[in-house]
Amino acid sequence: MEKIRSFAKSQYIEKAELVFKFCYLCLVLLSFNTFSARQWYLFYISIFVVLFGFVLGILRLTHIKDYLTKNILVLVLFVVSYLVSSLTVIRYGFTENIQAIAWMCIQFFLLFAYDKTRENESVLDELKVYFNFFVAYTGLMALIGLVMMLFNWNTYRVVDNMYVIAGGFLWNRLWGCYIDPNYGAVFAIISIIISMYLWENSSNVKKYF
Predict the structure, then answer these.
(1) Closest Cα partner for 115 from 31, 17, 4?
(2) pLDDT at 2
(3) How far apart are CA 31 and CA 2, in angstroms?
(4) What pTM value is reported for the model?
């Protein structure tokens, strides 16, 4: 058991968590992208992310005290309340609720939770990797969206006779590369906030980017 605890604190696991969070971010971005949303390969990517997260979650449990904070305890109570609520309406279906709880656990306890024993500089350096990638992605999607609008290009398809996947400039709205214009708006706001942080904490050359 001591070897497992030691391994869970090693640099290998720290790098594995970096890869996991990056994979999760990519999964989210692909799920909201017009050209990749509802594609068959997203199912297999999500399975990989869940299994990857499950292994990392088990390793974190060996040092659970290092992740316990007041904020995390509130999130634990939220998950418990969601579980209780799901049990009260189990006759209407439980599978989707279980899936929701699984994703909540990944988001709350693998993405939001952090090791209190890690140095602040290490955590900030990790965040900057995700921040720069997100800003680069949203910037590229914005440029592609502007080109779509200039050429009045659009796409529209229905998946499984249920889900509408649209993109480009459609119905006098700029969907761009997002399955819903509101996603593009939210991503843009997040990107602006991140950019403000990066502006204050980057060298002169990177500031212009």
Answers:
(1) 17
(2) 67
(3) 39
(4) 0.86
